[in-house]
Every structure is written in structure tokens, then in C-alpha cells.
User: Fold these one by one.
Assistant:
Number 1:
Amino acid sequence: MLADAVAAGQFLNPPKPAAPAAPAQPEPSKAAAPAGGQPEETDWEAEAAKWKSLARRHENKHLGALGFKSMDELDALREAAKKQAEFEDAQKTEIQKATERATGLEQQLSDYKSANARLMAAATHNIPPDLIELLGTGTDEEINARAEALAERLKATAPQPAAASQRPVESLTPGAAPSSAAPASADDWIRRMAGRTP
């Protein structure tokens, strides 16, 4: 962690050039055979204590370069920075939630206004419901202009109604209804379909 801060250049106080120190040489191994010929056992606790003290010396040298007196001071600063980051994230989250909700509501309002403008333009220019989506989105004026253009094209491409034939129907007698006429009511139609004609 400390090495990351040093590598990232996060110094509180710039490091002071240190005099080149002689590389730490471990003491000659006690495992070497003494004059008696028997190898002496290594005291591992003493070795661990020696390396721990070397590590602390090295650590204190780098802490001093960063402007800290002890590892506890550095840990307290890290904890404070962590709490500050959590607080900022909590505040940021509330603001982001409100912003996202407002943006969503604005988009929804815009969609509703656009749908209303399309429906009004379609009703005004007699555009069939399946063609309303062709009017697109935009301002009321843009949608109305597209509706006018679409209505003109629909009128131009609509087939002309066939002229009503003036020729009389052969089976029609004066005062009678044509044979293709629908029944007078739904009840009559159902009775006729069921075979119960009156």
C-alpha cells in the first residue's frame, strides 16, 4: 500500500535524497559448522525479529518521506479518506437518483406530448389509426405538417369510388328489399342462422 502511494507520486512532503546505504547483509548463517563439526541449530525467532526490525526501519524511512511519523497515523488517514469517500458516494447516489428520476419523467412527458400531437393531427386530417406512427415525433407544427403531407398522398392514391349503377336489380319489386339486404336486427340474424325464421 505504501509502495503504491510512493509509486503514484502521492507525497505529502517530497522525499529527501538519502545517502547511499550499504546493502543490508544478513549475518553469517549460524547453520555453518563450528569447529566441533556439529551444525548448530538456527534460532528462527531471532531471525524473524532481525528481519522485522529491518522492515520497520525501511518502513519508517518511507513514512518519513511521505510526512508521516508512524504507521498508525497513516492508517488513521486512510480510514478518514475511506469514510469521506463513502459519504460522497451516498450523497452522489441520492443526487443521481433524483436526476435520473427527473430525466425519466421529462422523457415520459415528451413522449405523451408527442403522442397527443400525433393523435390530434391524425384526427384533424383523417389519417387511419395504423398510419399514425408514420407521423413521427417533434413539435406540434412538425407533426401537423407531416400529417398534411400524408393526408394529401392518401387522397391521391385512394381509389375513386365506383359510380353507383343506375341499373335496377331484377328481383326487386316495388316496396321490397333486395335479397342481399342484412336482417333488421341482430336477433333476426341469429334466428335466421339457427333456422328459426318467423
Number 2:
Amino acid sequence: MFNLIPTLKKPQLVAGTENIYEMSESMYINYDNIPRKVKNIFISVKIPDEYINNPYTWESWYVRDEDTPELMSEKYYGDASYYWVILLFNNMVNKYDDWPLTEKSFEKRILREYGNIRYSMILPHCYVKVSTRVVTSDDEDVIIEDEEYKVSKDTYELLDDSKKPSYRMISKYEYEFGLNDESRNIKVLKSEYMAEFINEFKRIANL
């Protein structure tokens, strides 16, 4: 796990290097007087608002099953080693825990947490209040459902039976699937801003 956390190194120890990882490691001398590189598990860097809030500096991307941070880095920047920029730009700590799961990995996670996929599809996570309205399109009436608000399973069970039909159950499977699918929508820094971004990263991280 710790090998995925940003590290820190005194700049004078790596003068002339352009590798951000080499510049972000810290030298530590143990009791046996042997220098070692160690991870700084306390460093945390926030992306400046001028990048996140400026739609001209990034592109939207929907992560497919075959996409990985390294492949996307190669695609956008011509260098797989910049995958950390994609992770950092999307507030992801590491690619194993935060990157969207593939369909196969998602099903394995459901099995691990709920024991059975079918069971996860009938196990309530919460309930959503639904209202309906009729919209006329091309001389045809179409019924549209609007989700108003969500309530917990415990709150739903306390409702009067006459009110329960206006609520729809969201299963554990649907909830987990929605979270994973939402995480597929990421932002990718445009290549023309890469050099500027890395310099700003070094400044903020005090590298």
C-alpha cells in the first residue's frame, strides 16, 4: 500500500532529474548508517482550483473496462509514467482502490461483500420517493418518474402502508453499481498544460 503514496525527497539529493517520483522520495539514515529511501505518508496535495474549475484545461472521459491509468497516460501524454497525474486530478489515492472496477471485478466485489449477486439485488440499501408526471410528445402521452428524495430502510419501514407504494427500493447491487459507474466519469488534464501542472505540483508539495 505505502508504495502508492506520494513520497518526499530533498531537492538537492536529486538535482537535475526530471522524474517526479525520484524527486518525491525522502532519504533516511537508519541506526546502521545506511541511507534508505522512505515514503512520506503524510504528504497531501490538493489540485489548484484554476485547473479543476477551468473546463479548458481538461477533457471528460468515461472509463471503459479496458482503460487503465497507464494506458490513458500513454494515450494522452505519450508516456505511461504520468498515470499519477490522472489519479491526482481525480482525487484518487491509488489505482487499486479508487479506479473504477471492471465488470468482472465488480461482480467479485459483490460476491465478496454480499455472498450472492441475486441476494444483493433484493437486499434494500434505501428507498426513493417517486412522483409521476405525464408529458405529451408527438401526440403521445409519456409517463415520467421523478425521484424526489431518499430515505433509509428503517425510515421506510416506519411509513404508513398507504404511502409505501410511492417509494422505490434501491438494492445494494443497484447502489454499488451506481457508485462504480459514476466513478467512470473522470477528468483528464490536457497535454498542453502538463508542464505547467507538474511545476505547480512541485511548488505545492514543496519538492
Number 3:
Amino acid sequence: MASNRHLGRIISLQSLYEHEFRSRAGDSTAEIDTIVAKNIEPYAKALGDTEFVRDLTRGVLAEVEKLDEELQPLAPEWPISTIAAIDRNILRIGLFELTRRSEQVPPKVVINEAVELAKAFGADNSSKFVNGVLGTAFRNIGGEEGAHAESEQQERESQPESDKKPTKRAKKSPERAEPEPAVEEPTGISEPAGEPEDSGSDSDQAV
């Protein structure tokens, strides 16, 4: 059976979000392998390669502190702790795949997949923020300017709503306005509604 890696990333995001939420709430029973197994079970047949989810989730969690350190300079106005938990975990997954799995997954697929996760589970403008941060990360490791998953016009659209504004802004380039992240913590993440439609990235092939 072919691997459905788009669904796999959704389950990984669910699992990382749940683990972080429960751990911060002081739940000592929050164990990542148990959480992943629970989230995989309803979709195992559609998923195919369950080991992909386990490997991705464990890998991100094992390096979460290092990933956060690497993410911070990419969005210097926004401390990692103030970014919404969904966006934070999407960025961790994306950066992990860009920098630790670059030989397995094409960078443009990584960014596209992260943007799709942000559109599905984040705030209205989360996808622009995720796209901007991961696009910068890719350029910093020698990638092309054209790696952004969304167009210049989309990135110039209105800034996302936010209850907290930074006290000081860096100067913006006249060509591209850097979108802001959502800062409200979501109350939960919806589970995937059965087997998703084919997104064209199940096999992680760049288009």
C-alpha cells in the first residue's frame, strides 16, 4: 500500500500538539508513543506507512529545544512561546524535515505540506507566517528564492489578527511584508475527517 504522508503529518501534528498541551498541564502520563499509537489507530489503513509518523514525531520531540533555538532567529520579533501552539508545532515539523530529512523529502514539498497544515489547522493567516519562516530557513541553508509555497501577492495580503503586538518592529523590505503569527493558543486540533483527498504529495514528490 502506498504511503499517505500528508495524513501522516496531520497525525504527527496532532500527537505533538497533544503531548505539549498535556505536558504543560502537568499530566505525567503524557507519553508520546502511546499518543501516536492512539492517533494512528483510526487511520492505519488509509495511512499505510505508520512508521513514518512514529519516526517524524519522535524525531521532532527529541530535538524540540534545538529546533526552537533555530526557529527563533527566523522570526526574531516573536518569541517561540508567544506563537500559537499549532503554528509552533507546524514550524518544528517543517524545520525538522528541511534540515534533518532533506535527503528524503524535497524542500518544496516540505514547505508546501507545512503551509497546507497551517491552512487546515491554524488561524486565518498562519499559512503566510509558516511559509515566510520556512522559506527563510530554506534560503539560509542554500535554497532558492523560489522555494516559497505561496506567491509574492499572497504574502502582501493583510496582516493576521493578533491580540498581542510586538513593541518594536524591524524594518520591512518594500518588496515583501513579513506576516505575523497568531498568538492565541487554540483550544484543540480537529482530527482528520477520514481519508483525505489526494493532495499530490503523498509520495513526497515535488511537482
Number 4:
Amino acid sequence: MKFNRKCKYCTKPFETNSSIKDYCCPEHQRKANNNKQNEKRHKLNILNKPLMETYKIYDKLLGIKSLVRFSKEYLRGKGADLSFYTKTVHIEGKYLNGIFDILLFNDNDYLTLKRIKK
């Protein structure tokens, strides 16, 4: 049985034996899939870029120390986005946010950064 379809990439009509085929040729299917993946990567980069920049700021401020305390105003001035975190852990009855290997202790106008062992 033949089916008349319209290519989702180039919008040209084509004839196929499959009722589920969406593209007129493998090249158009590959290009469409690449475009879809590129869009996903772009959306992830929108989040990952400020997250990684914030992590680099925290990492640099910690240096070789395992614990440091800074005002939130100072951290914002350095370019840190205080709304980003990658995990939440439960320690001593409290829930703490963290970015990768750095825990964030929120204390009103201050933030204490503590590097946890990997």
C-alpha cells in the first residue's frame, strides 16, 4: 500500500510504503534530528552557563580552604547567581543546597560555602 506524505523537513510531498515515515530521505531525517538536538543543547546552555560561572566564583573564593563566609551582596557583586544549585542534602535536621561539591549555608545576608569531600 502506498501513502502520500509530506516531508517534515522540506515540506515536499513524497510517496512511501510506510504509514509512519516522516521524511522524504535519510538526509532530511538526519538534519531534522540534528536541529532538534541543537535546540536542546542551546536551551541547556542557557542554564549551564550561569551555573558554571557561579560555581567558578565559589570555587575560586574557597581556594584551598574548606569553609568561607561572604555577604550575599559581595557574591552578587562578583557575578554569582545565588538562585542556582544542583543538589539538596539533609544534614543535622536542615536541608542545604549545593552546587556540585560546594554546600551553601544560608544565614540571612550571608552565605557560607563549604567544600565537601568527593
